[in-house]
Predict the structure of LysR family transcriptional regulator.
Amino acid sequence: MEYRQIRYFLVTAEELHFRKAAEKLFITQPGLSRQIRQLEEELDLSLFVRNNRSVQLTPAGEYLYSEFKSNIGELHNLIEHARLIDSGIKGKLRIGYIGSAMNRVIPELLLQFREEFGKIVFNLKELDNQQQVNHLLSQSLDIGFVRLERVPESLRMVPVLEEPFCLVLPGDHPVNSDNFEGLQQLKDEAFIMFDANYSPSYYNKVMLIFEEYGISPIISHETIHASSIFRLVENKFGISIVPRSLQYGYDLNIKFIELNDSSQRTVLNAIWNKNRRNPVLENLQNYIRETLEIKS
């Protein structure tokens, strides 16, 4: 069995059409059919069910397609990593994050990590919580930073930052940190919230804050971006509640009041796939455990 045959099989399995697959691979259709037959003979199993109208994967073919696709991706990553090492770079990390993680945790972490471990390429992508989980399960990310309470069994989760929430008000709002007594003062205001689908556990924590103060919020807008929330607050469409770390990095006419009386805290977690093999990731995991992990 050759790498080329596996690639031919993967493309044919994706297209489920020999002529289209052959065109995509820049070979003749008879040549592709011959390569697939040889692969089936070498493996001693049938990969496709063929008739005049359609091509379908057999159950064994479906299984091999899934496994080959995953492992071919890992092989590409290994080769890419080796090329980086050959060019003098120690490796590459693909990092997913929610917006609030970029305000404090990630810049400090990556600067300190690079200082200790040397030249590393960081590929950063802002993604919501569920997108990060999906990418980690498919191993198209190395590590993510999320606000979730539970993740699938194949992922490891380590808490790295616990923080209180802040009230966000327009800059000229009459309530400030000196005269703030509680959310009861703001029970008639409209609130702008992170979308519940963005992180249900995070949304529930915010709703518990309202319960603690004994009010039912008027929710006027929901969004997934902190910058949108802050722009809406600045333009007096409402007020909001966000994690404390989000008060840094924005130059807008808004102000923050920490809700220190609330028992609710939000936790930022680092998550990664237990099966992901990347030497740089292993170093980062150890570094996070030693320097950032919140010990219970």
Notes: The first helix runs from residue 3 to 15.
